[in-house]
Amino acid sequence: MAADDQWLVVGLGNPGPEYAGNRHNVGQMVLDELASQFSGSFKAHKTNARVAEGRVTPGGTRFVLAKPNSYMNNSGGPTAGLLSYYSIEPSHLIVVHDELDIPFDTLRLKFGGGHGGHNGIRDIIAASGTPEFTRVRVGIGRPPGRQSAADFVLRDFTSTERSALPNLLADAADAVTKTAADGLTAAQQQFHAPPPA
Fold this sequence. Notes:
Blueprint: E1 6-11, H1 26-36, E2 43-45, E3 49-55, E4 62-68, H2 76-85, E5 93-99, E6 107-111, H3 119-128, E7 134-139, H4 149-153, H5 159-182, H6 184-191
Parallel strand pairs: 1-4, 1-5, 5-7
Antiparallel strand pairs: 2-3, 3-4, 6-7
């Protein structure tokens, strides 16, 4: 059954415990935060993803939260499969992912546009046939010194970053629910940090 109040939220990352704390997996960490808001648990789904379904508020938006079992660069197949299975239009898809070009502890929300070099987003655009979906971009910042971006995203957050992480994950989860309930513009106004004075 298609429902106007139903949203698919995909958290990007890599499968397996060895990747769970990596910066690249922050999208899946946000989904854990969201699922905890309605006591949801992730279960295996035939679309090669783990899925939790529920409503954050009684009678509110129904969320299908999904973590692809594929590696980041192959996120498109499970995402396209979930859109089809649940009869959800891409306009009701929110993808939560890490973003190197945004400072750590900062959120940016956008609808449509290119992939910005993010291979998970690139694969979802290719598999779904459209870039017309919402992205919640969770800033992880640039690697220090000469560390490669590929190495940086596959490292765990530092102890300093981990102290700020719970608030960042909570804000990103709230940005998802705000987008679904009140629209992207309202969410951007609430969660985009004002420029430094």
